[in-house]
Amino acid sequence: MPSTPPRVVTAALDGWVTVVAGFLVWPLLVRTGYPFARDLVFTPKLPLRPETLGLGTSSPRAAPLDAIVAVASTIVDGGVLAKVLVPGALLLAGWGAHRLASPLAWPARMAVAGFAVWNPFVVERLGLGQWALLYAYAALFWMVPLLSPEGGRGRQPRRGPVAASAPWLAIAAITPTGAVLAGSFALAVGLRRGRGQIGRNGRLILLVTLVQLPWLVPAALGGAAALSDPAGVSAFAARSERPGPAFFSLAGLGGIWDRLSAPGTRSGVLGFATSIVVVVAVGLVALRPRRLGLPARLLPVGIASLLLAGLTSLPGGAAAMGDLTSVIPGLGLLRDAQKWLAAFVVLAVLCVGLVLDHILPLLRRAAPAVGIGAAAVGVGLPWLLLPDGMAVVHRVVQPQSYPPAFEQAARVIAADPGPVITLPWSLYRVFPWAGPYATYDPASRWFDAPVVTDDTLRVGSITIGGEDPVASRVGTVVQSPSRGTGAQLSALGVRYIVVYTGVQGAVGMADEIGSGPGVQTLVAADGLSLLQLPGGTESAGASTYAAPVVAAVDLAVLLAIIVASTGLASGRRRDRSVTLW
Amino acid sequence: MLKTVVAPVVTGIVLAALSLFGLVQSQTSAPAKNPASQAIISYGDR
Questions:
Q1: Are residues A374 and A451 in the same domain?
Q2: In 10 A of CB A520, how many CB atoms?
Q3: Which of A35, A56, A242, A529 has CB atoms 3.0–4.6 Å from A499's, for a disulfide?
């Protein structure tokens, strides 16, 4: 029987990944509206403002992601954008994974592709609404064959492996965590020994540094406090999902800090089974990594990522890291420990494929039917181990419809912009018109004005102090809303108050503040009241030159990545044998 | 006989049992805490 051409196999596997990813985010694809749950908040059009460049009075946790979404949403509606961006991360992960496993037989590649998309790490991150981090996770699969000392087994890129990794580093760097995660991974996998490698290593270090600038520059120029509350370290440490240490949950590719983001089966026998499957697969491959074809550095890098993810779950680990967080600026951006597991997930996914590829021919030779059954189990492994992954993701990606009052309020504020605060004073609320999940305040993604919100986080019984000095001052004023609250807020420079009247804790709040002297109610419908205060022109936060500087840096980094990845800088494009990076 | 009949049947039974077990468990196990009952200001819970 003639063998299937490699291109057909690759195309079929790409299709398989599309199907798997499609199932995982199905409601997002087939329903109209905007995903609105947990941290996943899309609006029709995200205003392009200094705050979206990361220059607000809070830490730039979504730089340059917000700027990218803001620019894109000037062309495409945010609801459509979400349908592209969220599944896009899954597709890139799956497509990259089966290409990384291209020397394997197709059943093993199929298992790798499915497992890369449908695993506890991906599901739990999506369960929290943190889709952007998955771009960094996806980029790792593509960077391994480019940067590993083995150089991958496929065709090498004409423009050189470091140059070819530039777009993947850039894709990963849409969030600060992604930039650090992918940057450290690239260095760990890609740096070479020897004097002849100085130039190559230098270019890689330069590239990794370059992609950090879109979040480092606004962090330096913005108005947020540089140090974070050390309480966040223990609150966001990896969590044990079932009896046993957190490391065992992390070894099963789960362990996210938030219990509500973890599928129910993670706490049961299937959670144990996942950990055992991964540990056995990684263990077997670790015995003979070269013979089985594992990229040499992926094993230590993956294990290191597992240790890093579990560090703050060890006795004394959170306290030590908390001490560092309170003295090292910016370390708070990295406090969500389970994010660092991404490299281990890449290792685990590939090891499962390698083990399958090794044992399936043996089983087939022993008994064809058993071989076929084992192949089916291997391909279906993600669903056998995590059958309720879809349920957790669906409830978060399910699009919702904003009440028309948001549009009205946005128009009023755009006509006469000024600082906005939102009440009840909290960053996360359960909105009656959306799902039953605490969801990020959508005001900053709707209104073309500086929006100040509470940035104190509550995780169970732990309260993590915010980093926004303006929010701290406003928070003191709005503790007990009254007739005089409007005047006090006006003195702080606030022009508008948005009261989400339908949420718990808001009863009577809009009427009480609205009855104050000089306070006008401009919108009152659909669970939202917009109050205007007299005055309110002060714009706290970054200085006026900061926004052009950050925009210029973002554009310069983008240009540099394009130049690096296309080889335009060399001026020797005709000589394709020259390795530029 | 063993390879053509017994092995496929056993494999099928094992596969079906595993799938059913996983599905039933995922559909019947309630979360430890009702998500709707969480405090409105809570970002998440450990």
A1: no
A2: 11
A3: A529
A352 is in which domain, residue-wise? 6-397
Most confident residue range from A260-264, A569-573, B25-29: A260-264
Kindly determine whether residue B41 and residue A426, on different chains, have CB atoms separated by under 8 Å.
yes
* A49 & A107 share domain: yes
**Edge-to-edge strands, sheet with A520-525:** A451-452, A420-423, A496-499, A528-532, A520-525
C-alpha to C-alpha distance for A141 and A144, rounded to whole angstroms: 6
Of chain B, the end-to-end C-alpha distance in Å amounts to 53
Q: Specify the higher pLDDT residue, A357 or A195.
A: A357
d(CA A579, CA A165): 13
Question: Do A418 and A392 share a structural domain?
Answer: no
Does the beta-carbon distance from B43 to A263 stay under 8 Å?
A: no
CB atoms within 10 A of CB A18: 16
Closest CA to A531 of A554, A549, A550, A506: A506
User: For A349-395, how does the pLDDT look when each residue is reduced to its tens digit (9 = 90+)?
Assistant: 999 999 999 999 999 898 888 888 889 999 999 999 999 999 999 99
Whether A10 and A31 share a structural domain: yes
* CB–CB contacts below 8 A, A to B: 121
Residue A92 dihedral angles phi and psi, to the nearest 5° = -60, -40
Residue bearing tokens 């991150």: A125
Rounded to the nearest 10 degrees, how much is the dihedral formed by the CA atoms of A131, A235, A270, A121?
20
Q: How does strand A496-499 pair with strand A428-429?
A: unpaired
Q: Choose among A265, A367, A380: nearest Cβ to B25.
A: A265
Considering A397, A427, A458, which residue would you say is the last residue of a domain? A397
Instruction: Identify whether residues A427 and A281 lie together within a single domain.
Output: no
**Do A375 and A514 lie in a common domain?**
no
Mean pLDDT rounded to a whole number for chain A: 91
For tokens 């002297």, the residue is A517
Cα A362 to the chain's mean position, in Å?
Answer: 40
Which chain A positions have a beta carbon within 8 Å of B25's beta carbon?
264-265, 268-270, 387
Shared-domain flag, residues A195 and A299:
yes
Nearest CA in chain B to A366: B3
Q: Which chain B residue is nearest to residue A431, measuring alpha carbons?
A: B40
User: Looking up tokens 């540990």, which residue turns up?
Assistant: A279
Placement of tokens 């144990």 in the chain: A272
Per the domain annotation, does A556 fall within a domain? no
DSSP state at residue A527: T
A146 lies in a domain?
Answer: yes
Q: Mark yes or no for CB contact A429/B40 under 8 Å.
A: yes
pLDDT-derived band at A473, boundaries 50, 70, 90:
very high
Last residue in a domain, options A373, A397, A421: A397
Q: In this structure, are A145 and A257 located in the same domain?
A: yes
Q: Give the distance from residue A259's alpha carbon to the nearest chain B alpha carbon, in angstroms.
A: 5
Nearest CB among B15, B32, B39 relative to A377 is that of B15
Are A360 and A104 within 8 A, CB to CB?
A: no
Nearest CA-CA distance, residue A103 and chain B, Å: 27
Q: Tally the domains of chain A.
A: 2
